[in-house]
């Protein structure tokens, strides 16, 4: 298994500011992902974090709004830029060691934008 | 495009009852299927992973089955307990280097 931690666990931010969320995995993984979960909804994939190259974004998500870094096989960051109240969500980091293996999730970061 | 549907959306049962959660997917070409549990305001906990070549997986009181040809999976929970109350999510992995596709989940309440 893999244990994933996220920092911060929650934050309240003002409109127009940015927040960087950190994701740390306790062992090397192949793929890392960032998801958003809005209240009462299922998960929406934001992007796949690629080591050493630009992240692969899903439709509706852009790098300027959600820049992602992945400097090595165990760490990634997601920045939520120029925040608005619509960005209030839980942001989840996820990882897997390969397509045939389990995918694991972090505890989430609960973001509230006022 | 792969779509995953979970029925029912919500379920309330008395403690001790056996129950079945359903998951269906539109494209039978999947790599594997994973069941997760999510407690309110928390991340997802992986429960069971079934590879496309497998028919079922068991862990404790949980048993998940997979019928790939009909695009269906079930999660069976035996002797339900109040601690089982959570949202259960089903997700499939399409072929290739592609992310999981999630259903919207079944919200389970087990009443003591």
Question: How is this structure best summarized?
Answer:
The complex is a heterodimer of chains A (114) and B (112). With 114 residues, chain A is mainly β.
* Shape type of chain A: globular
- Euclidean distance between termini CA atoms of chain A: 37 Å
Strand content of chain A: over 45%
The main β sheet of chain B shows up as: 6 strands, mixed
Task: Give the number of DSSP strands of chain A.
Answer: 11
Number of helices of chain A: 0
Unreliable runs of chain B: none
Total beta-strand segments of chain B:
11
Q: Detail the poorly predicted runs of chain A.
A: none
Quaternary status: heterodimer
Proportion in helices of chain B: under 10%
The total count of helices of chain B amounts to 0
Structural class, judged by helices and strands of chain A?
Answer: mainly beta
Describe the structure.
The complex is a heterodimer of chains A (114) and B (112). Chain A has 114 residues and is mostly beta strands. Chain A contains no helices and eleven strands. In chain A, a hairpin with a 6-residue loop joins β5 (44-49) and β6 (56-57). In chain A, 34% of the residues are buried. Chain B has 112 residues and is mainly beta. The A-B interface holds A 1, 4, 33, 41-43, 45, 48, 90, 92, 94, 99-108, 110 and B 31-32, 34, 36, 41-46, 49, 51, 89, 91, 93, 97, 99-100, 102-105.
């Amino acid at each position: 298994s893999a244990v994933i931690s996220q920092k911060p666990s929650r934050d309240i931010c003002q409109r127009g500011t940015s927040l960087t969320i950190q994701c740390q995995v306790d062992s090397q993984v192949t793929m890392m992902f960032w998801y958003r979960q809005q209240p009462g909804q299922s998960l929406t994939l934001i992007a796949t974090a690629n080591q050493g190259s630009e992240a692969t974004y899903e439709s509706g998500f852009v790098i300027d709004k959600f820049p992602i870094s992945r400097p090595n096989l165990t760490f990634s960051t997601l920045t939520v830029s120029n925040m608005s109240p619509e960005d209030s969500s839980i942001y989840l980091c996820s990882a897997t060691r390969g397509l045939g293996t389990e995918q694991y999730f972090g505890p989430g970061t609960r973001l509230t934008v006022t | 495009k792969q779509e995953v549907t979970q029925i029912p959306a919500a379920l309330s049962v008395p403690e001790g009852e056996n129950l079945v959660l359903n998951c269906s997917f539109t494209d039978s070409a999947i790599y594997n299927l994973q069941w997760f549990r999510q407690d309110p305001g928390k991340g997802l906990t992986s429960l069971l992973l079934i590879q496309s070549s497998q028919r079922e997986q068991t862990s404790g009181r949980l048993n998940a089955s997979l019928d790939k040809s009909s695009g269906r999976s079930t999660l069976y929970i035996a002797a339900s307990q109040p601690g089982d109350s959570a949202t259960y999510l089903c997700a499939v992995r399409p072929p290739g280097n592609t992310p999981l596709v999630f259903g919207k989940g079944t919200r389970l309440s087990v009443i003591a």
